[in-house]
Specification:
- The chain is α/β, with parallel strands linked by helices and about 260 residues long.
- A six-stranded mixed beta sheet has the order 6-7-8-3-9-10, with helices on both faces. Strands 2-1-4-5 form a four-stranded antiparallel beta sheet, with helices on one face.
- The protein has a domain of about 170 residues: Rossmann fold, CATH 3.40.50.300.
């Protein structure tokens, strides 16, 4: 059974049709990648699924419930979390404090105990810290917990973002360019982390330009071009699809790849 189902979603901005009639699904524990040339509509599609954009048409279903157009905080409560292409890290806070911010849904409680620092408030804060430290160990940042986040390498900051997203205990995790700007070693670390996350039962929806990484870890690939789905399937089939090759390389009038 599909955990996330996207059915015929479309959106336009003025006269620009950014996404048109795109459908796909993802099951628990799968890694599904959305790929395509620059401007193909990948991030726009992510913004529809994660509630940032309201689609003009189509539907999004999460774990059997229609969630089309719900706000991001509502989707987070239902089990959908995401990272962004551009880092959203609090650079002047510690690594641990950044991870703790991901537990805000679990920390919610009555105002009075927080105002007076009552035992119930301290217990919630302690659970959040323990959970954050466990997640930092999971993503390989346990020893950096007390460091200022701004002192970390770019690849470590990407893993910190994943840790914070995991703190929300998602059923579906959306990763927008998690390896962008990373070197080969950092990409391999993120590759391993995504594989482990999926193995734990979380569905991972990925946008990534690193095709080697996509082909290694994806169960299923959806290809967009000019806002439309032009191919879908297993990595081996997609990589040999003429429409995909044409979208990435271009073709001349005889249908041969353009130089």
């Amino acid at each position: 059974m599909s955990l996330l189902q996207v059915d015929g979603v479309s959106i336009s901005f003025g006269g620009l049709r950014a996404v048109h009639n795109v459908s796909f699904s993802i099951r628990r524990g799968e890694v599904v990648s959305v790929i395509g040339p620059n401007g193909a509509g990948k991030t726009t599609l992510f913004n529809i699924v994660s509630g940032i954009y309201q689609p003009d048409g189509g539907a999004v279903t999460l774990d059997g419930q229609t969630v089309t157009g719900m706000a991001p905080f509502q989707l987070a409560r239902r089990g959908l979390s995401r990272t962004f292409q551009n880092l959203q890290i609090f650079q002047n806070m510690t690594v641990l404090e950044n991870a703790i911010t991901g537990f805000h849904l679990q920390e919610a409680g009555p105002l009075l105990p927080d105002l007076f620092n009552l035992p119930s408030s301290r217990a919630r804060a302690r659970r959040a810290e323990e959970g954050a430290r466990a997640l930092l160990e999971r993503v390989g940042l346990g020893r950096a917990a007390e460091r200022e986040a701004g002192s970390l390498s770019y690849g470590s900051l990407k893993r910190l973002e994943v840790a914070r997203a995991l703190a929300m205990k998602p059923k579906v995790l959306l990763l927008d360019e998690p390896a962008a700007g990373c070197n080969a070693v950092e990409t391999a670390e993120i590759d391993e982390l995504i594989t482990e996350v999926a193995a734990s039962g979380i569905a991972v929806l990925l946008v990534e330009h690193d095709m080697k990484m996509v082909m290694r870890i994806s169960k299923h690939i959806v290809v967009l071009d000019q806002g439309q789905k032009i191919a879908e399937g297993a990595p081996e089939a997609v990589s040999q699809d003429p429409a995909v090759i044409a979208a990435y390389l271009g073709t001349d009038t005889q249908g041969e790849p353009a130089c």
